[in-house]
């Protein structure tokens, strides 16, 4: 195997997504997912050389899951331990105030990521489990953490500050951190490439619309605002998350519905958003329900679009003018309807969508506004794994340079 491949690991509470790829060429040698870790019906699905292999069975923990990944690589001719990979890149959700660069992992870094679990109790413990397993199984390979919050570290004070008692906020790390940063950064760079412009010259609005969803406003390649906050719950309506709501709803639920705080957390993170309003969280199913005349599904969609347009308007004003509006991730890349409705009737602001370009089948990056429209509207597939692999490769290259 070539020595320049990077293994990217995205470790969730009960799953591990992975890719082995070449950060230069972006060619993916293999990829897959381990699901339902800790349950009886666990499984691994591994893709390599155009073939998919699947293995069901109980997977006790993340180390057992990662061992299965290594076995799957061996079975398809990639000996990760023997021949080695250049680096392992880990997606880490919360870097807090501490981490805002891709960071070489050692014991102290792992401990600090674990300490940040108080800010991301659903995510950071799983990230730590993935890191510890990978370090145990690939002891000689440099491991690099790439943080979802990093890109938004330098948000202006007025955008990142919540208007609560400043002493309480400072004592508890309460500020807007923002998430999906790796995606927003990668996509904004691709937009500049596609437009043949320097990022530093561009004002951009980016909508990352997947299961989780967030928007960002970027001036000269740097974010000046984003919708997610202390946690990934704030902002847009998502598959299962509420996004913005009156904070008074939380004490009301505790007092009136007698929910405890964990039940409120679950309600807002897992049983709200499109799912809470319509019963389904996948946009393809939502569309089918709407077409069958389901009123709840129609309302869920309308609320989703209403929130998107609210932030579009806010970010247009914050930026004072925009060069490009871009859609990415599962819904953003695949739903012409969402793109058309989000930007409908805004020609007076220079925002237009060409219907034929918007509906054309295609998976690559593309412009969907008329060529003479003042604002470019684009669809750009995100690639967080590639961005993480490149960041990890860069850290390792700098490390080697320092040693030589
Ligand atoms: P995640 O946030 O889990 O990474 P993705 O970016 O993969 O999510 O987006 C997943 C979502 O994308 C699905 O839940 C589904 O709603 C939506 N999606 C995927 N394909 C399509 C499609 N062809 N049309 C509309 N929505 C789609």
Automatic annotation (TrEMBL):
Involved pathway(s): Metabolic intermediate biosynthesis; acetyl-CoA biosynthesis; acetyl-CoA from acetate: step 1/2
Subunit structure: Homodimer.
Amino acids binding substrate: 91
InterPro entries: Ac/propionate_kinase (IPR004372), Aliphatic_acid_kin_short-chain (IPR000890), Aliphatic_acid_kinase_CS (IPR023865), ATPase_NBD (IPR043129)
Cofactor annotation comment: Mg(2+). Can also accept Mn(2+).
Magnesium in keyword set: yes
EC assignment: 2.7.2.1
Record: residues binding Mg(2+): 10, 384
The protein, known as: Acetate kinase
Location of the active site: 148 (proton donor/acceptor)
């Amino acid at each position: 195997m070539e020595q320049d491949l990077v293994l990217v690991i995205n470790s969730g509470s009960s799953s591990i997504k992975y890719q082995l790829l070449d950060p230069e060429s972006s060619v993916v040698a293999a990829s897959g997912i381990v699901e339902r870790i800790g349950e009886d019906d666990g499984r691994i699905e591994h893709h390599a050389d155009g073939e998919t292999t699947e293995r069901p069975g109980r997977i006790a923990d993340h180390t057992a899951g990662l061992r299965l990944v290594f076995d799957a690589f061996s079975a398809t001719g990639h000996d990760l331990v023997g021949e080695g990979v250049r680096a392992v890149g880990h997606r880490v959700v919360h870097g807090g105030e501490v981490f805002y660069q891709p960071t070489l992992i050692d014991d102290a870094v792992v401990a600090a990521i674990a300490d940040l679990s108080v800010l991301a109790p659903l995510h950071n413990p799983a990230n730590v489990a993935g890191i510890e397993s990978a370090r145990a199984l690939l002891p000689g390979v440099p491991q690099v953490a790439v943080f979802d919050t990093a890109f938004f570290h330098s948000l202006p004070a007025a955008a990142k500050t919540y208007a609560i008692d400043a002493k309480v906020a400072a004592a508890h790390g309460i500020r807007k951190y923002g998430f999906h940063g790796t995606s927003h950064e990668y996509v904004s760079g691709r937009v500049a490439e596609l437009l043949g412009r320097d990022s530093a010259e561009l004002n951009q609005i980016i909508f990352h619309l997947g299961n989780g969803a967030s928007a960002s406003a970027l001036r000269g390649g740097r974010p000046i605002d984003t919708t997610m906050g202390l946690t990934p719950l704030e902002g847009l309506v998502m598959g299962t998350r509420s996004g913005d709501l009156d904070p008074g709803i939380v004490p009301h639920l505790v007092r009136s519905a007698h929910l405890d705080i964990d039940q409120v957390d679950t309600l807002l993170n897992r049983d709200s958003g499109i799912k809470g309003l319509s019963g389904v969280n996948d946009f393809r199913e939502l569309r089918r329900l709407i077409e069958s005349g389901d009123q709840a599904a129609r309302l869920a969609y309308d609320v989703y679009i209403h929130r998107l347009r609210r932030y579009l308007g806010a970010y247009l004003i914050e930026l004072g003018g925009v060069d490009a509006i871009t859609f990415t991730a599962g819904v953003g890349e695949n739903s012409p309807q969402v793109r058309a409705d989000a930007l409908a009737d805004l020609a007076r602001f220079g925002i237009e969508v060409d219907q034929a370009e918007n509906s054309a089948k295609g998976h690559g990056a593309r412009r969907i506004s008329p060529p003479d429209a003042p604002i470019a509207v684009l669809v750009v597939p995100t690639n967080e794994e590639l961005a993480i692999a490149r960041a990890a490769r860069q850290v390792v290259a700098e490390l080697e340079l320092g040693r030589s």
